[in-house]
Structures
1.
Amino acid sequence: MSCIDLKHISLEPKQIVKDVYWVGVNDCVKDLFESLWPIPSGISYNAYVVEGSEGAAVIDGVDRHLTYEYIEKIREVVGDLDRVKYVVINHLEPDHHASTPALLSLARNARIVISPVGAKIIQSLYQVPRDRIVEVLDGGVLNLGGKTLKFIFTPWIHWPETMMTYLEEEGVLFSCDAFGSYGALAGGIFDDEVDLEYYLEEARRYFSNIVLKYSRNVSEAISKIEKLGLKISVIAPSHGPIYRRHIDKIFSLYRDLYQPKLRVKASIIYGSMYGRTEEIVERVAEALRKKDVTVELIDAARVHPSYVLHYVVDSGAIVFIYPTYDAAVFPPVLDIANYLHIKQVGRGRVAAVLNTSSWGPAIREIVDLLNKSGFQVLDAVSIKAIPTPEDEKRIEELIEKLAMELKKLT
Ligand SMILES: Cc1cc2nc3c(=O)[nH]c(=O)nc-3n(C[C@H](O)[C@H](O)[C@H](O)COP(=O)(O)O)c2cc1C
Ligand SMILES: [Fe+2]
Ligand SMILES: [Fe+2]
């Protein structure tokens, strides 16, 4: 279902707990998040207002083209924008703060609350007068009158300046990109109002596209939160549903993702122009299945890298099978290897490369990328499009090595 069909493009501001309101927006205009990742059902940018007796704080912002709707929602909650004392920026990616200059020009008493690293970066994005910035420290608090905001630095989720904000009285954790999901909010804003299975699946894809590279930082952030012993009754991320009933589900999904329990599974990422290579792919897949390996076939020319990352996140092995194309690695396969490199997917996993050609192999470029991704490259062989008897032997050896290494995972 497309984002527009959801008919929830313009949800009203909603109270999430006492004195805390969702003032986020749904983006049904963008086709690709970060101009890279397909969002067939859109995405939400969640922002919040916390009302204290001495003023209000806005937590996070939205992307620029939805600024008007965001500000109108804030106005509806606070009445007079002059009551806004603070605009907390947990993370400076423009999906969470491109709306800030407009808000600051209308909310004349508001000051940005940000980490010191964020305060440096913000000047590279737009000029903010120094006296409109409040730098906070890790563990620091801000009192709004009966409402206390505590700041927890969580660097690299997913930029260096990132922090989370915790509302002590109500136990709300504003977690920014962590625990976020693709998909505009449809049917409501809470985990118990929406089709949660859909959003959890999209949270997994969001993680593998956006946060995966920073898995260690996610793990550190979650341990930090646990050590602080915060009583969390609501997790309010910056994308996707707000968790109040199923906090355990999103936590356990995250545990599975940042410390993936790799399965005895081989993802075969392949390309084939005229079918010869595909025949080999099918044979390799069949042989691996016979050795009790789960096989996932991914046609690199037809599956978007966003979904490839999503699928391979629990694979113990990744196998690349492709023809040489104009003296190079078949481009869609190389493209995926490049994404795996950028996202550093290789750690703890094995890889194998099987190239088919008619007159010249194409291997080095992809093996370099896989090594840099952290894979242990078990084998990289080039064979003829119609394999010779020696080629057959090489294929068999490759399958043996793969199955053996995968078994070590169990
Ligand atoms: C457009 C195109 C470019 C190719 N470039 C090369 C090449 O540079 N070197 C080479 O050895 N083979 C090249 N080939 C041959 C293929 O790599 C070979 O036939 C392939 O292994 C067959 O795989 P397929 O049937 O799965 O497409 C090319 C084939 C095509 C169609
Ligand atoms: Fe981000
Ligand atoms: Fe984001």
2.
Amino acid sequence: MLGRGWRLPFRPFGVPIELDPTFALVLPLFAWLIGSQVAAYAELLGGLGIVLDPEPLTRGATPWLLGAAGALGLFASVLIHELGHALAARAYGVKTLRITLWFLGGVAQLDEMPRRRGAEAVVAIVGPITSALLSLSLAALLRADAVAGGAAFVVSYLAITNAGLALFNLLPALPLDGGRVLRSLLVFPLGEARATTAAAAVSRAVAIALGVYGFLTFQVFLLAIAFFIDAAGRAEVGAARARRAFEGRRVRDAMTAEPITVDLAWTAGQLRRLRAFRPHTAYPVVTVDGAPLGIVRADDLDGIEDATSAADLMRPVETVRADADLEGTVRQLATTTAGRFAVVDGDGRLMGMLTKADVVRWLQSADAGRPGDGGGATTKRPDPMAD
Ligand SMILES: [Zn+2]
């Protein structure tokens, strides 16, 4: 969903900040929206008891300066909200990989969700609390008459915006903070699987309500948010399902067992014949003891001489133990040079191969929903609600 953004040159609390191109587009848009409606905003603020003389605010380039200040303040507000999440996660010992700012706000990408029960709720609620506190502090500045004129305009705008950020994020829809709080709390009575399903149902209802409201009132932005909530909510449920499927699983559960192996003396001619009968993307090369030496890729076999040996064609492959944690291994798959792992037993003998395709196949198979033979997930039963 999020493209690669621009890394900002500062890291508050050590967290890298990335600016998505969509956010860079939206900032000038907000500056323009605020700047072109300074008089209307001033009138609106008057209704809230914040009396500002619109005349000096709308003179010359002033509205555009106010617009730019408001947009920058909005940027800072979203960033502070996300830093709230990041610091709460840190209290649970969870690292924030990066904070990405995009046109619908910010995303703090955590290394993993804190496992402790209820921790997700705490990390989620800290965001809206941060925004609410920011809003109250800004309102206090106004009440104390600490700011006047243009500064008062920007401070009032940001006080209202932060209150809005807090309220919007409290909507009980995944992936918003309110939805996370709801799911985390539902885990107590319903258990992990049903909590996610129930939270997803509430999310859909909220998304539909928002969408219908946005449609009836011609608010395209609301409509976009409704679609975003619906799509992101589904992705969230998928991720939760995958997390559950991986729980307690070992590499051996998902690997392709007993792959066809070759030795160093095999020639390209022989390998091509093997490929014709038993097509695979790669063939592991093993020693007489069955220890993996490397792989020969099937598509390396074209256009080379028959006599070329497997030793010359071989590419390196990383090994992993069959009893290694599956989820952690899958995460490392992308960083391997061969795009796969040779799976070995305790004596270093090849037991199988693990590729991304193996993992996808395993996730799609019924096996992923059932307790594993060697895993620690034996206390779980298949949940009819999960499929
Ligand atoms: Zn948040």
